[in-house]
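Why should sequence recovery work at all? Because a backbone constrains its sequence more than one might expect. Tight turns favour small or flexible residues, buried strands favour hydrophobic ones, and helices have their own preferences. The token representation captures these environments compactly. In the example below, the structure is given first.
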């Protein structure tokens, strides 16, 4: 997707914000499944070009900003993953409403072994119901 943004900037004279939800070359699975030296060098070159040419770069944490800073020295905007509690309505007692017996939480991506949320998966579901895993 970064290349779509890069192309749109070049062809249409648009501002381009590159949003990194995960590191590119420093992503954990590159250590688990090493690439050839040539492929790694190509990825490094492409990553540097995106980081240099984007008008702004967004990352999810200060740590990720530090990782990217080592690749290209520039400013990085940190917008952490999370939620805004104001997006959720609560009743007068401060409890979540239980007007449904179903809550769907979906994660689309990969999770490294050390980041599997076992506690979350084993916890009681919404309004005390048992989770279905």
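From this structural description, the recovered sequence reads:
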């Amino acid at each position: 997707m970064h290349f779509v943004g890069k192309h749109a900037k070049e062809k249409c004279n648009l501002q381009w914000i590159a949003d990194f939800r995960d590191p590119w070359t420093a992503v954990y699975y590159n250590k688990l499944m090493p690439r050839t030296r040539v492929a790694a060098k190509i990825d490094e070159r492409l990553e540097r070009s995106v980081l240099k040419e984007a008008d702004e770069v967004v990352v999810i944490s200060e740590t990720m900003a530090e990782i990217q800073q080592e690749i290209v020295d520039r400013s990085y905007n940190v917008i952490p993953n999370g939620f805004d509690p104001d997006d959720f309505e609560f009743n007068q007692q401060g409890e979540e409403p239980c007007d449904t017996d179903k809550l769907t939480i979906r994660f689309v991506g990969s999770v490294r072994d050390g980041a599997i949320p076992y506690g979350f998966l084993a916890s009681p579901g919404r309004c005390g119901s048992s989770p279905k895993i």
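A few observations help interpret the result. Residues 102 and 126 are 8 Å apart (CA to CA).
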